[in-house]
């Protein structure tokens, strides 16, 4: 059984919108796209690359999938992320896309997304890693399906933009910090495990409660 690992860049005020580029996501008139770039360093690259080489699959919402495909599938500079992203199997949650999907090793999830992801967790070897995909992450969190959050918390306040956890949602959760890695630019790469679900029930599923402390230290590394 795999674990579902959410990997996000966030600001101190919880914004996750458009960390990568000015035109990445301008919804709501967002004008701060690309805010994460000045904080990249060798510590972040080394830490985040640990889990990218592990076995497992990737999970995307439609918007993030299209953004990643539009950029990473066209890179020819030898960046190690390109080979990993092209090689790994990618599952996409979308109500508008249809197969065949444009990026190799991609499959469309059909039916109820939480049921489909729960089935994937039972069937896949290794972890399911979610990058970006805020709406998808929130729906999976409400269903109690997220096992690990790896958050690169940037020393930056934007005051506007879409947040990882939307305000006003009827959700409650507590998390356990299992690792924190500081970078040279002030980013804290923090790895958390939910101890009470961010879903409406306020409790973690029995199978996760049983195995939460049984995993090795490797499973709590910054991307796993």
Order of helices and strands: EHEHHEEHEHEEEH
Number-wise, the strands total 8
- Strands in their spatial order, largest beta sheet: 4-3-2-5-1-6-8-7
Mean pLDDT: 86
- Give the termini distance in whole angstroms: 14 Å
Chain-wise SSE layout:
Blueprint: E1 4-11, H1 42-52, E2 56-61, H2 62-72, H3 80-87, E3 90-93, E4 106-109, H4 113-123, E5 127-131, H5 134-142, E6 148-154, E7 174-182, E8 188-196, H6 206-211
Parallel strand pairs: 1-5, 1-6, 2-3, 2-5, 3-4
Antiparallel strand pairs: 6-8, 7-8
Structural descriptors:
224 residues, alpha/beta, 6 helices, 8 strands, 23% strand, disordered C terminus
Description:
By secondary structure, this protein is of the alpha/beta class. Helix content is 25%, strand content 23%. It has 6 helices and 8 strands; from the N terminus they run βαβααββαβαβββα. The protein has helices spanning 42-52, 62-72, 80-87, 113-123, 134-142, 206-211, and strands at 4-11, 56-61, 90-93, 106-109, 127-131, 148-154, 174-182, 188-196. It has an 8-stranded mixed β-sheet with strand order 4-3-2-5-1-6-8-7. A hairpin with a 5-residue loop joins strand 7 (174-182) and strand 8 (188-196).
């Amino acid at each position: 059984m795999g674990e579902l690992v959410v990997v996000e860049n966030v600001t101190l005020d919880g914004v996750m919108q458009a960390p990568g580029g000015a035109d990445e996501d301008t919804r709501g008139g967002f004008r701060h796209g690309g805010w994460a770039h000045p904080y990249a360093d060798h510590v972040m690259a080394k830490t985040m690359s640990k889990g990218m080489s592990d076995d497992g699959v990737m999970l995307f919402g439609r918007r993030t999938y299209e953004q990643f495909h539009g950029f990473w599938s066209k890179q020819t500079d030898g960046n190690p992320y390109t080979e990993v992203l092209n090689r790994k199997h990618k599952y996409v949650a979308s109500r508008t896309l249809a197969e065949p999907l444009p990026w190799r090793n991609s499959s469309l999830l059909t039916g109820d997304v939480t049921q489909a992801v729960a089935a994937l967790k039972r069937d896949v070897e290794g972890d399911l890693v979610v990058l970006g995909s805020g709406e998808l992450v929130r729906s999976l969190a409400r269903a109690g399906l997220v096992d690990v959050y790896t958050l690169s918390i940037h020393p930056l306040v934007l005051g506007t933009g879409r947040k990882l956890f939307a305000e006003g949602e009827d959700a409650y959760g507590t998390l356990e910090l299992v690792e924190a890695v500081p970078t040279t630019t002030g980013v804290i790469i923090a790895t958390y495990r939910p101890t009470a679900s961010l879903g409406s029930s306020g409790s973690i599923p029995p199978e996760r409660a049983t195995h939460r402390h049984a995993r090795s230290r490797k499973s709590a590394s910054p991307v796993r």
